[in-house]
Design a protein that fits this description.
The chain has 17 helices and 13 strands. It folds into two domains: 231 residues, Aspartate Aminotransferase, domain 2 (3-Layer(aba) Sandwich); 95 residues, Aspartate Aminotransferase, domain 1, CATH 3.90.1150. The protein has 439 residues and is α/β, with parallel strands linked by helices. The protein starts with 5 loop residues before the first helix and ends in a 5-residue tail after the last helix. 42% of the residues lie in helices and 12% in strands. The longest helix is centred in the N-terminal third of the chain and has 24 residues. The strands form three sheets. A seven-stranded mixed β-sheet has the order 2-8-7-6-5-3-4, sandwiched between helices.
Length: 439
C-alpha cells in the first residue's frame, strides 16, 4: 500500500499509533492461524460439522444456513481479533481478507476476482444492480411473473424512480407440462427490439422449477449477433437457489450477471452475498453506494479519479460491515470445493428425486415441482389434500420435520433436501406425509 493509503492515513491521524499500543496490551487472534482444513470423508461425518438440533429433520436449510465448523471457527477468529483490538485488527486484515474471499469465490465460480462484487444478500445485489443499470430511451427490462418479491420490487422501485419500462411475461403454462423448449421459446418470442435487460430467477422458490439458463443464454446470444453493442441484451440471473447446488462455471453459463446470497445452499456466513458480472457487461452497471475499496479510497485522497478501476470494485458497497462474517466467507467456498462440486450436485439430486418420487406416489399429495432434474434443483413444492400449506407445515414440525410455506400469493408446502440430510431422513419424512390428514 502507498504512504497515502489507509494505513498511512491512520498513522498520520494518530489512530494507528493508538492501535499499536492496544495491540501490545491485548493479545490478538491472528486470522492466519487457521484451523486444520476440513477433509470430506462421508455424508454422515459431514453432518457432524453442523450444530443443528439432532431432534429435527432439517428440510429448510436453504432459507438461512447453519454454519459448518470451518465457517463458524473462522467467524470466531475474526470476532476475537476485532473485539481485542478493533482498529488494529481491521487495518491488518481488511484488504487481504477481502482479497482471499474474492479469490475463493472466483475459484469456485470459475471466474476472476475482478468480476465479483461483495454484498450482504441476494436482495442487496438485486437492488444495487437493477437500480443502476444504464438504459437508453425506449429500452425496456423484460422479466417474468415467476420471480421473487425482491426482483419484482427492485424493478418496480427502479421504474417508479426513473420511469424505466418493465414488462412481465409468463415463461410456461404449468409445471405439470413445462419443458425446456417451452421456456426458451417463450423467452425468444417475447424479446422485442426494445428489450435491453432480461431479468430472471434460475430456480423458482415458488415451485422448485429450474430454468434452462444456458439454453436461454444461447437464444439471447443469437439475437445479440444482429444488434449493436449499445442495444445488446444483458442477461441477469438471480442464482441464489442454484449456487451451492448446481455444478457450473460462470464463464460457460452464458449470463451477463449472476446475483446470489451465499448464506443459503453455500453455507456461508449469514449476511453475505455477491454479484458476478462478465467483464463486457460490468460497464452497464452504475454504483449507488460508495465503495470502501482501498484503491478507490487512495485515489480519492490523492484527488484522482477512480473511474478506471474495475466496475465490480465500485459495486461492492462501502461502510462498515459485520467483518467477521464477510472475511469467513472464503471458508464456505473452500468447504464446498473440498467435497467436490459434482459430488454436491449428485447428492442433492438423489435426495430430491427420492422425495419427489415418494410424494408423486401418494394419492393425497399434489406435486408441483417437475420430476426431471433438468427442470428442478433442490426445492420441492407440493400440496396435501384437506390441509392448508401452513397447517401441513405445522403438523410436520410437530413430528420433528422442518419445512416452510412458499411466500407467494399461491402457497405450497416446501421441503428442500440438502447435504445435511440422509436418505433415511427423507424416508422418515415420506412416512409422516403418508399419514398426514386433516385430523
Amino acid at each position: 500500500m502507498s504512504d497515502i493509503g489507509r494505513r498511512g492515513f491512520l498513522v498520520r491521524t494518530g489512530l494507528a499509533l493508538g492501535a499499536a499500543v492496544l495491540a501490545g496490551a491485548h493479545a490478538r487472534v491472528s486470522a492466519d492461524q487457521q484451523a486444520p482444513q476440513y477433509r470430506f470423508k462421508n455424508w454422515e461425518k459431514l453432518r457432524t460439522q453442523f450444530p443443528l438440533s439432532p431432534q429435527l429433520i432439517h428440510l429448510a436449510a436453504f432459507f438461512l444456513a447453519s454454519h459448518p465448523t470451518p465457517v463458524r471457527e473462522a467467524i470466531e477468529r475474526h470476532r476475537a481479533g476485532l473485539d481485542a483490538d478493533p482498529i488494529g485488527y481491521w487495518v491488518e486484515h481488511e484488504e487481504k481478507q477481502d482479497a482471499k474471499v474474492l479469490q475463493a469465490a472466483a475459484e469456485y465460480l470459475g471466474g476472476n476476482p475482478t468480476d465479483i462484487a461483495l454484498t450482504d444478500s441476494t436482495t442487496m445485489g438485486l437492488g444495487l444492480l437493477y437500480g443502476g443499470l444504464k438504459l437508453g430511451n425506449e429500452q425496456e427490462i423484460l422479466t417474468t411473473t415467476h420471480d421473487h418479491y425482491s426482483t419484482e420490487t427492485a424493478l418496480r422501485l427502479r421504474a417508479e424512480r426513473t420511469g424505466a419500462m418493465v414488462r412481465q411475461i409468463h415463461l410456461y403454462r404449468s409445471t405439470n407440462t413445462v419443458s425446456r423448449d417451452e421456456i426458451v421459446d417463450s423467452l425468444r418470442k417475447n424479446i422485442t427490439p426494445m428489450t435491453r435487460i432480461v431479468a430472471v430467477t434460475w430456480v423458482h422458490s415458488s415451485t422448485g422449477l429450474k430454468l434452462p439458463i444456458h439454453e436461454m443464454a444461447l437464444a439471447i446470444q443469437a439475437i445479440n449477433r444482429s444488434r449493436e453493442e449499445r442495444d445488446r441484451i444483458i442477461f441477469c440471473v438471480d442464482g441464489v437457489h442454484a449456487l451451492g447446488v448446481e455444478d457450473f462455471r460462470v464463464s460457460e453459463l452464458g449470463c451477463d450477471f449472476l446475483i446470489a446470497g451465499t448464506h443459503k445452499w453455500m453455507f456461508g456466513p449469514r449476511g453475505t452475498g455477491l454479484v458476478w458480472g462478465h467483464p463486457k457487461a460490468w460497464p452497464i452497471a452504475r454504483a449507488t453506494i460508495p465503495t470502501f475499496s482501498g484503491q478507490a479510497y487512495e485515489l480519492w485522497m490523492e484527488n484522482k479519479s477512480s473511474k478506471n478501476l474495475p466496475q465490480s470494485v465500485h459495486m461492492s458497497p462501502g461502510g462498515f460491515h459485520s467483518f467477521e462474517h464477510r472475511w469467513a466467507l472464503g471458508e464456505a467456498f473452500t468447504f464446498h470445493q473440498t467435497i467436490g462440486k459434482s459430488k454436491v450436485t449428485q447428492r442433492i439430486y438423489e435426495l430430491n428425486q427420492q422425495l419427489k418420487q415418494g410424494l408423486a406416489a401418494m394419492p393425497h399429495v399434489t406435486l408441483h415441482t417437475p420430476m426431471s432434474q433438468d427442470l428442478s434443483a433442490g426445492i420441492v413444492c407440493f400440496e396435501v389434500a384437506g390441509l392448508a400449506p401452513r397447517q401441513a407445515v405445522e403438523k410436520l414440525r410437530q413430528r420433528g420435520i422442518v419445512g416452510s410455506v412458499t411466500p407467494y400469493a399461491t402457497k405450497y408446502v416446501r421441503l428442500a433436501p440438502s447435504l445435511i440430510n440422509s436418505p433415511k431422513e427423507i424416508e422418515t419424512t415420506l412416512e409422516e406425509i403418508r399419514t398426514l390428514r386433516m385430523a
